[in-house]
Amino acid sequence: MPVFTYRAKNMSGEVLSEKMEADSVKSVVSKLRSSGYYPVSIESDIQPQFILRGIRKGDVILFTQGLSDLISNGLSLAKSLNVLSRQNENRAMKNLISNIEKDIKEGSSFADALMLYPSLFSDLYIGMIRAGESSGLLETVLIRLSEFYEKEQEIISKIKSALAYPVVMFFVGIGCVLFLITFVIPKFIIMFQDIGQILPLPTRIIITLGNFMKDKWWLYLPVILVLAVFFVKFGKGKKGKIFFDELKLKLPVFGNLFKKEMVSRFVRTFGVLLSNGVPILDALKMTKDTIGNTIFADEIEQIYVSVKAGGGLIEPLRKSNIFPPVAVDIIAVGEESGDLVKSLQKIGDSYDKKIEYNIKTLTSLLEPIIILIVGIMVGFVAISMLLPIFQMSSAIY
Fold this sequence. Notes:
Layout: E1 3-9, E2 15-21, H1 25-34, E3 38-44, H2 57-72, H3 77-87, H4 91-105, H5 110-114, H6 123-135, H7 138-193, H8 201-215, H9 217-236, H10 238-250, H11 254-275, H12 280-290, H13 294-308, H14 314-319, H15 325-337, H16 340-396
Antiparallel strand pairs: 1-2, 1-3
Helix pairs in contact: 2-3, 2-7, 3-4, 6-7, 7-8, 7-11, 7-16, 8-16, 9-10, 10-11, 11-12, 11-16, 12-13, 15-16
């Protein structure tokens, strides 16, 4: 009998993580609910994880869009999954859809079947699917999910595109300088040794650095590797995540962009969940788990605690150092008028425009700055090599 590893919570929010033998996902869900627990994620120990390799976020978005189109044309969920499985050219995605279809035919709900793949389908995704199934609005939910993830990917792609050119330029510049220092400059050293004069300071610095890079490579390469491993492991821990997430928000220029992207993600995620009938407490919880930043997650936790205690959204938002006052005022108006979802959508649209404008401004500023920095580095190396030549010319004349 298959063994399932599950995470579930009860009405008080207590989380339980254990293993259970069962015939199917449906049996696990049934047993958990009969015990007063709500399943959060379920993974099968016999589920081959290698089938998930080769599946990207874009594949999930296309899957959601395709499923929405087929269901809107009158096909049942199982039939739609069968069509998508046959049409999909990605072997990993084809196997995934087939497995989901099999679980549904065996009696599992769509949301429960998706629980087996938490690395692909977030709590937000599963929660919205569950709400759509229970309300009979699965087609609408799938449309909103595809629009939501498409918009999110668009913003992330714009940010990555804005950073790609400056980062590539910077590392190309570093690579050129290292090449000059390690392979070109040593050719000049032989000539400089015959000068018989004290070399200029910049030249001595470059020669010393070149000798170190060439002779001590066995020392700095392991150090770089150890530091890289340390920072990766540190970044995965709780303290590391807090440190890097806080640093990300405090970075000059970029920090403001990251902060706006987080605010946009929060209002869009929260708004989409509320518009699909997810209770406000569950919506806050799901948003917190999918926000991707521990600092923002802590702020959302304060909002969750306030709402759970009978308070509102506005007070903890006003106390926050992250959420802008203008956004809080718009949310306050929406909460008072009973049209919170519309207010959240307006804020999301507004911040998307601000992010796009900031990205364009950032790109236009970064390109000349990076070129200037690379030019200064290469120029310093060139001047360091020319100074002794000028010195030799002066001695001759």
